Amino acid sequence: MHLDFSPEDLAFQQEVRAFIAENYPVELRGKQDEGDELSKEDFLSWHKVLAKKGWVAPAWPVEYGGTGWSATQRYIWSEETARADCIRLMPFGLSMVGPVIYTFGTPEQKAKYLPRILSGEDWWCQGYSEPGSGSDLASLRTKAVRDGDHYVVNGQKTWTTMAQHADWGFFLVRTDPDAKQQEGISFLLIDMKTPGITVRPIITLGGEHEVNEVWLEDVRVPVENRVYEENKGWTCAKFLLAHERTGIAGVAASKRGVEKVKSIARAEMDGDKPLISNAFFKRKIAELEMDLTALEFTELRSLAGESAGKGPGPESSLLKIKGSEIQQRLTELTLEAVGHYGAPYFRGFGEGDNEHPIGPDYAHRAAPTYFNTRKTTIYGGSNEIQRNIIAKMVLGL
Ligand SMILES: Cc1cc2nc3c(=O)[nH]c(=O)nc-3n(C[C@H](O)[C@H](O)[C@H](O)COP(=O)(O)OP(=O)(O)OC[C@H]3O[C@@H](n4cnc5c(N)ncnc54)[C@H](O)[C@@H]3O)c2cc1C
């Protein structure tokens, strides 16, 4: 992979910049930067603009609706969208179940689900984790019993992100209780409106409703909704997790985050000098930037491998660990920079709210964002588990 942009790449960069400037929804501008909670409509409004342009799924093969961009172009795309602070699209359809369906699905499944993922008509959620089965996912107990041309599903999933909005969910279920753990699991696509499904909110530390419990009681799922062979769902599950981890690194967004921390540290005072001139604070920012640059080059190597036909391998665990740690360090530095202005716990102005926030605008979401970002080292497979994977698969220990 060449890191110098060719004239074509530079032209592409200009095209992307112009497209974002003209088409990024006006009502979304600045919303993410200010840390406002984003609604389903917010996510979908940008999604639909990109779908119309044919740019919503750059990583997909062209035959299924991908853009056919080179690794460099995809890198430029993620840089430019982060630079303009465009909201990140929901990954559950585009980066998770979509690739599973075009890799393992039947022609009918591809025809039914892929166009609706691209258009944004279907919002997906991920039903993997259960109470007691997170890191040890293969121990999951939600069971699906065959009844004619249906499965009858019973069990409980947890931490299901954005399930409150979901039209469809992809679920791991146990179809053979007698087989070895990984060998008795199947991958089902379930319409979230099916009778027997209950979604209950879990409110997280930052006060947000992002995650849920999903209960399944005698939920009837057509057998044709199973992806790949019965009891071979673990193959799809592992494939999906590797895709999930690559996207989690969030390098471009963190680069923007560093610039934001620097601008806060220029505005905040440390005694009679701007905080940015404090040697200790400056060192922390410099260390963060160095780690981020190293991560960026690792991600570029991984992208280059992908463009040469290699799928994301165990190195995606490394991207997940470093990317998530950097995201957390950014929120720690932001909280440190805003100091006591971070203490009042504002969640924006709700209807009927007549209190005024204390301190500068950039301070209001510092604490909730700090708390919310504790999740990044847990989800997508916790960082301890990623270290185990590296020890085994990369270092051969
Ligand atoms: C905000 C958020 C959103 C999520 N969204 C989804 C979603 O949409 N869909 C979904 O299916 N799941 C989701 N998850 C669940 C997530 O994948 C699990 O939380 C994660 O896999 C960890 O599982 P656990 O919570 O059961 O913790 P446990 O597995 O019980 O782990 C507890 C602690 O022990 C450590 N540990 C466990 N086993 C080992 C080991 N072998 N070696 C070393 N350390 C170990 C872990 O690292 C962790 O620190 C989400 C989680 C969060 C926090």
Question: Could you give the topology of this structure?
Answer:
Blueprint: H1 7-23, H2 40-53, H3 71-83, H4 91-104, H5 107-119, E1 124-127, E2 143-147, E3 150-157, E4 168-174, E5 185-191, E6 197-203, E7 209-222, E8 226-227, H6 233-248, H7 251-267, E9 269-270, E10 273-274, H8 279-307, H9 315-338, H10 366-372, H11 383-394
Parallel strand pairs: 1-4
Antiparallel strand pairs: 2-3, 3-7, 4-5, 5-8, 6-7, 9-10
Bound molecules: flavin-adenine dinucleotide.
Summarize the structure.
The protein has 397 residues and is an alpha+beta fold.
Overview of the molecule:
- It is a single chain.
- The protein is of the alpha+beta class.
- It folds into 3 domains: 7-89, Acyl-CoA dehydrogenase/oxidase, N-terminal domain (Butyryl-Coa Dehydrogenase, subunit A, domain 1, Orthogonal Bundle), CATH 1.10.540.10; 123-231, Beta Barrel (Butyryl-CoA Dehydrogenase, subunit A, domain 2); 248-394, Butyryl-CoA Dehydrogenase, subunit A, domain 3.
- It has helices at 7-23, 40-53, 71-83, 91-104, 107-119, 233-248, 251-267, 279-307, 315-338, 366-372, 383-394; strands at residues 124-127, 143-147, 150-157, 168-174, 185-191, 197-203, 209-222, 226-227, 269-270, 273-274.
- The strands form 3 sheets. It has a 4-stranded mixed sheet.
- A hairpin with a 5-residue loop joins strand 6 and strand 7.
- Helix 1 runs parallel beside helix 3 (71-83), helix 6 crosses helix 9 (315-338) and helix 9 (315-338) runs antiparallel to helix 10.
- The longest helix is centred in the last third of the chain and has 29 residues, at 279-307.
- The two termini are 30 Å apart.
- The mean pLDDT is 91.
- It binds flavin-adenine dinucleotide (FAD).
- Flavin-adenine dinucleotide binds at residues 126-129, 134-135, 159-161, 211, 375, 378-379, 381-382, 384-385, 388.
